[in-house]
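thought: user wants a sequence for this fold. calling inverse folding tool.
action: design(structure=
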């Protein structure tokens, strides 16, 4: 009982730090709100079109599922009013979501501040990842490759399949261009935050390593004479990260993978909770083992699923080779001169950066938690490994999905109006593949489950580390149970509400994280200059 009372007291303390309730109101610009409820705009539910498969349109929840969905919609209304608050430029018709503007400015600044490390460090990152400079005796729990795989398993997920399809269907082909730009710039953000994650990691008495934005925000800013400010940012980040692990890293993965699976297993449509229970069981088996078991599973799943998916994309692209020039023309034209249907230039740019940030998490600070456990004597070295993530995740995998969606014309196909209106991106991608590889939707269902599963187990670790930071080592099981509860909820809450909640939490992490990274960027640049000088001088021993 004393331990339980202490936990309740700490939770109350954290809730108290959030301040007064936020006003209900705005939802994300590209979302389809839930049925009418306080604080959420009214909208008509998507109506299946004639001849559409039953799984294509999301059935309205009922009973306890409707209650859960209603409360999620109310929560999203509150979060959206703050995180997607619009910054007005020169008149009310030209606004920009604050969080997207924040991500763009942060990525551009870090790219310039680090001397375009995203480009000049690319080759070295590949060599480090393959173990060329790895000494098995270095302090850490996992190898560079395992840390990268664990972080990639969190980012390469349904955001690459479902999120991209949603972005293109809402923002048009031009959103693809801005996703690629966001991925390239995000490589610098990822480098800086993962370098800091290594620099300020801590070793616990049991030998486990603890690191991430919570530690470099609190301890790093403490070194700059701002201990209270740093601690406040760390607490806000940890709360948002826990929310991100439950939303985008959990419920979104379950929800979208279930939608894709229902395309080929229609028996799941009336009983979505069955899929939720299956994912609860599979996830629970792994997350109890911690980062070593997660990394062990991830370094096997990630290469396989990425290879399978990219090959399938290449097959579709190759069979439509004649349409490739027109697809790229549509992407470039849509990036700078989009039609009003896609919200104009700002709307397309926002969609590209928003979905890229959700997918690769550059600027959110989440990956620093996984990379802090890597074996290396140089924090900068792990940061250089980490910059590969946005490239693989966004520039390669997301672009492949976008090309399939654009080349096949699935984003504008009136036959898919129902699944587009319901934000069922995974189902839309499945339809696009099915047009050219009749049997591939079955394979995609397996790939989608692997994508979702790998993302969930890695995000469970992120959320657990933040939970431990807030409430102590003795309460890990409480978080794990909570995570599995939200795994189940992901199968019964509507896709629009799940998408919004995941966006708000993961993108919201960028506010405290990028502010801290900006203030600590001088330390990162000094470490980078010292490391790069040694690298260019050939002072690092080569092991393979």
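)
observation: tool returned 544 residues.
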């Amino acid at each position: 009982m004393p331990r339980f009372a202490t936990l309740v007291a700490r939770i109350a303390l954290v809730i108290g730090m959030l301040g007064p309730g936020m006003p209900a109101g705005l939802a994300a610009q590209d979302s389809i709100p839930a049925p009418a409820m306080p604080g959420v705009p009214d909208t008509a539910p998507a109506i299946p079109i004639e001849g559409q498969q039953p799984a294509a349109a999301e059935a309205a929840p009922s009973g306890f599922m409707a209650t859960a969905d209603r409360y999620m919609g109310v929560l999203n209304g509150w979060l959206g009013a703050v995180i997607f608050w619009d910054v007005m430029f020169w008149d009310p018709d030209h606004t920009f979501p604050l969080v997207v503007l924040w991500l763009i400015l942060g990525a551009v600044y870090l790219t310039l501040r680090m001397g375009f490390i995203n480009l000049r460090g690319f080759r070295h990152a590949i060599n480090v990842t393959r173990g060329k400079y790895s000494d098995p005796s270095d302090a850490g729990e996992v190898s560079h490759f395992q840390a990268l795989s664990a972080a990639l398993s969190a980012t390469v997920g349904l955001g690459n399949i479902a999120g991209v399809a949603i972005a293109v269907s809402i923002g048009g082909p031009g959103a693809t261009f801005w996703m690629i730009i966001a991925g390239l710039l995000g490589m610098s953000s990822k480098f800086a935050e993962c370098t800091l994650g290594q620099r300020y990691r801590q070793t616990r008495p049991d030998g486990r390593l603890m690191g991430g934005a919570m530690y470099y925000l609190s301890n790093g800013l403490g070194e700059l004479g701002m201990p209270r400010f740093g601690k406040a940012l760390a607490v806000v980040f940890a709360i948002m990260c826990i929310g991100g692990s439950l939303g985008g890293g959990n419920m979104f993965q379950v929800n979208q993978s279930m939608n894709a699976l229902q395309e080929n297993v229609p028996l799941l449509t009336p009983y979505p909770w069955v899929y939720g229970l299956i994912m609860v069981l599979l996830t629970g088996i792994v997350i109890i083992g911690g980062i070593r078991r997660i990394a062990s599973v991830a370094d096997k799943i990630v290469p396989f699923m990425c290879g399978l998916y990219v090959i399938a994309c290449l097959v579709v692209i190759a069979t439509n080779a004649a349409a490739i020039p027109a697809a790229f023309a549509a992407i470039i034209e849509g990036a700078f001169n989009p039609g009003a249907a896609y919200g104009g230039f700002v709307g397309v740019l926002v969609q590209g950066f928003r979905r890229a940030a959700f997918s690769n998490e550059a600027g959110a600070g989440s990956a620093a938690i996984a990379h802090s456990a890597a074996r290396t004597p140089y924090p900068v070295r792990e940061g250089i490994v980490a910059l590969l993530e946005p490239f693989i995740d966004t520039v390669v995998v997301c672009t492949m999905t976008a090309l399939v969606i654009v080349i096949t014309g699935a984003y504008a196909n009136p036959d898919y109006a129902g699944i587009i209106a319901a934000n069922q991106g995974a189902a839309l991608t499945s339809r696009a593949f099915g047009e050219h590889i009749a049997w591939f939707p079955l394979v995609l269902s397996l790939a989608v489950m692997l994508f979702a599963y790998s993302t969930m187990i890695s995000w469970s670790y992120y959320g657990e580390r933040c939970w431990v930071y807030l409430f102590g080592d003795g309460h890990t099981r409480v978080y794990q149970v909570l995570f599995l509860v939200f795994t189940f909820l992901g199968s019964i809450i509507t896709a629009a509400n799940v998408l919004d909640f995941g966006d708000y939490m993961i993108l919201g992490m960028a506010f405290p994280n990028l502010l801290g990274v900006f203030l600590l960027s001088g330390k990162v640049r000094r470490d980078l200059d010292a490391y790069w000088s040694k690298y260019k001088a050939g002072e690092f021993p080569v092991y393979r």
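thought: summarizing for user.
answer: Here is the designed sequence. Residues 408 and 432 are 6 Å apart (CA to CA).
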